[in-house]
């Protein structure tokens, strides 16, 4: 009975991962100014699915391998081609660009081993669409493994994408732990980033007189523009 259950579980995993093997699909893309406060050297890469859904990510210009800067800034519509590689898969894109904006089509090739490697660090295997989104945002296996090692188990593709969007890194979480904040809920960590709370700011608040200040209080202080001395 135990053997049958083990074989059934192994078969389920095999078919889950096999569904991803050699998966290739066409998606639309647009590129344009990122609108980021720190926009230098960045571009917004947006993926559009056939069902009308989409996702946008701020990427380094250098991530778009082969993108001709002259073609991107051309005053006339000019053919462009580029490639983006990520742990989740790769995009091979062709289209046209003009005055820092462009659009076209990408062939996304999923990394067949990606779902199994996520499962190895306690992340649920993504759907095909989630795997495209993870590639677009540059979610890394290294970050997934680091978060697992820090005790964050059972993460989902959606959660890893959100952490990437808000620039939450395992290094930041380690710095919080060094300041006395162990296993901070990820929603709280995202809030810290949204309100621009650096670990230097937390350290300064602690030094100003409250070594045991809560992170919720730190966020309130940051929102009120409090400057610790």
Number of separate helices: 10
Number of strand elements: 6
How much of the polypeptide forms β-strand, as a percent range? Answer: 15-25%
Q: Give the proportion of residues in helices.
A: 25-40%
Mean pLDDT equals 89
Rg from Cα: 21 Å
Q: What coarse outline follows from CA principal-axis ratios?
A: globular
Oligomer description: single chain
Which class of secondary structure composition applies to the elements?
alpha+beta
Order of strands, widest sheet: 3-2-1-6-5-4
Distance between the amino and carboxyl termini: 66 Å
SSE order in H/E notation? HEEEHEEEHHHHHHHH
Low-confidence residue ranges: 1-22
Q: What composes the largest sheet?
A: 6 strands, antiparallel
Brief summary:
This protein is α+β, with helices and mostly antiparallel strands and 229 residues long. It has ten helices and six strands; from the N terminus they run H-E-E-E-H-E-E-E-H-H-H-H-H-H-H-H.
């Amino acid at each position: 009975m135990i053997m049958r259950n083990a074989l059934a579980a192994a078969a389920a995993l095999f078919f889950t991962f096999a569904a991803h093997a050699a998966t290739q699909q066409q998606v639309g893309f647009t590129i344009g100014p990122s609108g980021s406060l720190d926009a230098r050297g960045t571009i917004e890469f947006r993926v559009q699915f056939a069902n009308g859904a989409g996702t946008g990510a701020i990427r380094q210009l250098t991530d778009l391998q082969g993108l001709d800067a002259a073609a991107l800034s051309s005053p006339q519509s000019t053919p462009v081609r580029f490639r983006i590689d990520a742990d989740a898969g790769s995009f091979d894109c062709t289209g046209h660009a003009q005055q820092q904006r462009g659009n076209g089509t990408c062939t996304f090739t999923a990394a067949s081993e990606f779902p199994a490697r996520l499962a190895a660090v306690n992340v649920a295997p993504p759907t095909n669409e989630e795997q495209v989104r993870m590639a677009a945002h540059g979610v890394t296996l290294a970050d997934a493994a680091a978060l697992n090692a820090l005790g964050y188990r059972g993460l989902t593709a959606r959660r890893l994408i959100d952490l990437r969007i808000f620039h939450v890194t395992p290094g930041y979480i380690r710095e919080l732990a060094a300041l006395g904040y162990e296993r901070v809920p990820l929603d709280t960590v995202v809030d810290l980033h949204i309100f621009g709370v650096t670990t230097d700011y937390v350290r300064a608040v602690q030094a100003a007189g409250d070594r045991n200040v809560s992170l919720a209080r730190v966020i309130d202080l940051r929102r009120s523009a409090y400057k610790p001395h």
